[in-house]
Each structure stands twice: as structure tokens, then as C-alpha cells.
Structure to design on (385 residues):
């Protein structure tokens, strides 16, 4: 892939133009304010911007196959800034809206649901993506910001599940959020909501046990998860009563739905080769679906360069690399458009199953029987039982 020097200046001020496209998400905040103020159907501008406008821009702007030098040591101040400032902005959008709509009483029940659907699009399409970036970093304050963002959508266990399970067991039956071949999104969603928290709980218990600590140890992050989520629920109750809490939970559900749609798309039907005795090959670029579409990568801070994220999980988003089709599978559209297709399972299978079968022929021509991979019934390692 060709190299790009975009955003690689030593001066934070000269880096502003290069970082600016990744601030597309900031335009959602005035749309939330407008919807809360005007009511009616104004809330529809939020998903229209996040899903449809960016997908349309992909069609106009095309793909970006350039790679920054991952060892450039660039000053990424303005790139990092959007992820660092996002929690207070999202916090204000969620809780400011809860207070405002209850204090003014100018919106009907349906208008409130529309508004908080839009806020859920913001906290799911943007907030959880930024939380994902932050929780992979080494600095304490960034990880805390990631925890706060996840608590604002009542999905704190995602940190443990993602770091301790998903990155180790992606594209294997042990990973709840790796969608199986031919599995529809809705059955996947139910399975993840059921298995994800349990998987995170078990993984954290094992992690603490290896360090010689009990699950009741104060360093167990599940205590922090519970405290932060409880504080968010309590604040929603104080600001908006029971209806305010209900609106908070509703936006959290919409956010989680957005997250799991993305998880579904990222690894659908892709499987690491089973080596026997519960062992699997190492994770490779071929085990994630990628999209090089320019505008949606701006909005999702390069989340669609997902193969490189699994190769270098702590690599900051401006430095993530893209891969050629002979190294990693490519989606026909960006993630927002593909998640829309995923909500119509027959259409999704018609579009993606042939691509999965082509991927299998390309990368694993020696495997003749995929039935165990399709069912997710390959044996687990002894440590997982």
C-alpha cells in the first residue's frame, strides 16, 4: 500500500487540517440540541447524518488506500483530542436532554422517544467507537474515559469481554461476538446479550485468579462497572424521574444495538483454522472484514481498518493500516451501509454468503468440510472448559 504523510507533522497546529475530517462526529451535537428544542421529526437528522450522509459521501469521495507510517512518531494531538473530549460532550447531550425535556414538557412521548433514539445513535455509533479506542490505550485517564463512555450506555462489561476474550478468541466459537456463517443478526444479537456478560465475568475471574486475587478483590473492574452504571442511572432518575431513567435506558439499548450490528459485520463467517486439540492458528488480517471507504472511516476513526487493529490493538487510529484484498477480505460498502443490510437477514445472506465462500476458497482451499465451522461446534481448549 502507498504511504501517506497526512497528519504526520510535528506541529499540532499544522496537523489540524489533517485531523479535521475525524471531527465529523461533532456535527451530531447541534443536531441533538435542535431535535430537543424543536421536537417533531427533527431527530431524524441524527441517523440521517450518521448513516446516510456519510455513506453517500463514500460514494462521492471513494476509498482511501493510503497508509501512514506507523513508526513515524507523529504528533497526534488533534486526532486524539476528539476521543478525549467526547465523554463530556456526550454526557451533556444525554443528561442535558433528560433534564431539558422533563423541565420544559414541550415534547410528546413519541417525540421524546425519537430524540433519545437519535441520542442512542450518537452514543452507539460514536461514543462506543471512541470508548473502544480509549480502552486500548495505556494511559490511565484515557482508559477511565473509555469506562465512563461505556457506563453511559450500560455496557461496561464490554471492556473485559473485548480485551480478555474477543482479541484472544476472535473468529473461533469461544468468541461470542464473532458471527457464525449463516447466522442472522437477530439471533446473533440475542446470543451476544446472553453470553457476552457471562463470558466477561468468567474471563475476569480467571484473570484475577492468575494474579492470586479473589473475585471480591477491590481491583476487580466489575465493582467499578457497577458503581459507574449505578451512578448514571441515579443521575437520570434525579434529573428526569422514572421517565428520565427510562429514556436513558432506551438510548443505551439503541447504542448497544449499534455496537452489536458493527460487531456482526466485522467478522461474519470468518474462522481461524482449527489446528487440533482446541488450538487455532494465530490471528491474521484475513480474519476481519475491512472497508477502505473514506468518509465512514473519518466518522468511525478508522474502525473499518479492523484487521490492523487486531494485529496491533494499541495502535492509535490515525496509524492503522489498510490491506490489499489478497491479505484481508473487503466489504462492498462501508460499515453504516452494511449494518443496514445486516438488519434484513435474507438480503445479508444473499450479499455476504458468496463472499464468505469465496474467502474460504481463497485462504483455505485445503479445508473441504466447513460444517463444524458453520455450526460453531469446534472443540474448545481445556482451559476454556
Amino acid at each position: 500500500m502507498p504511504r501517506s504523510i497526512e497528519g504526520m507533522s510535528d506541529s499540532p497546529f499544522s496537523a489540524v487540517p489533517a485531523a479535521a475530517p475525524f471531527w465529523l462526529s461533532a456535527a451530531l451535537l447541534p443536531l441533538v440540541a435542535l431535535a430537543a428544542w424543536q421536537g417533531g421529526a427533527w431527530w431524524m437528522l441524527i441517523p440521517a447524518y450518521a448513516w446516510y450522509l456519510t455513506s453517500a459521501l463514500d460514494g462521492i469521495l471513494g476509498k482511501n488506500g493510503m497508509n501512514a507510517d506507523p513508526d513515524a512518531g507523529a504528533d497526534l494531538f488533534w486526532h486524539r483530542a476528539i476521543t478525549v473530549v467526547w465523554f463530556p460532550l456526550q454526557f451533556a447531550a444525554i443528561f442535558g436532554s433528560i433534564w431539558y425535556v422533563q423541565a420544559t414538557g414541550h415534547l410528546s412521548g413519541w417525540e421524546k422517544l425519537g430524540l433519545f433514539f437519535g441520542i442512542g445513535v450518537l452514543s452507539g455509533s460514536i461514543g462506543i467507537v471512541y470508548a473502544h479506542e480509549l480502552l486500548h490505550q495505556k494511559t490511565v485517564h484515557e482508559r477511565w474515559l473509555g469506562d465512563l463512555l461505556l457506563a453511559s450506555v450500560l455496557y461496561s462489561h464490554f471492556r473485559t469481554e473485548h480485551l480478555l476474550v474477543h482479541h484472544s478468541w476472535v473468529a473461533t466459537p469461544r468468541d461470542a461476538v464473532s458471527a457464525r456463517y449463516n447466522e442472522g443478526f437477530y439471533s446473533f444479537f440475542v446470543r451476544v446479550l446472553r453470553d457476552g456478560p457471562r463470558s466477561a465475568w468468567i474471563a475476569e475471574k480467571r484473570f484475577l485468579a492468575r494474579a492470586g486475587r479473589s473475585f471480591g478483590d477491590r481491583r476487580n473492574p466489575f465493582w467499578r462497572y457497577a458503581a459507574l452504571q449505578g451512578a448514571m442511572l441515579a443521575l437520570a432518575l434525579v434529573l428526569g424521574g422514572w421517565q428520565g431513567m427510562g429514556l436513558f435506558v432506551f438510548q443505551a439499548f439503541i447504542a448497544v444495538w449499534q455496537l452489536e450490528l458493527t460487531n456482526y459485520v466485522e467478522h461474519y463467517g470468518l474462522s481461524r483454522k482449527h489446528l487440533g486439540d482446541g488450538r487455532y492458528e494465530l490471528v491474521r488480517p484475513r480474519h476481519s472484514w475491512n472497508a477502505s471507504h473514506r468518509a465512514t472511516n473519518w466518522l468511525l476513526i478508522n474502525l473499518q481498518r479492523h484487521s490492523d487493529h487486531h494485529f496491533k490493538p494499541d495502535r492509535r487510529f490515525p496509524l492503522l493500516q489498510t490491506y490489499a484484498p489478497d491479505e484481508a477480505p473487503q466489504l462492498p460498502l462501508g460499515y453504516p451501509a452494511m449494518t443496514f443490510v445486516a438488519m434484513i437477514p435474507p438480503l445479508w445472506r444473499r450479499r455476504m454468503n458468496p463472499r464468505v465462500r469465496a474467502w474460504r476458497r481463497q485462504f483455505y482451499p485445503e479445508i473441504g468440510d466447513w460444517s463444524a465451522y458453520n455450526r460453531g461446534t469446534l472443540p474448545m481448549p481445556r482451559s476454556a472448559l
Summary: The longest helix spans residues 221-267. The chain has one domain: 3-384.
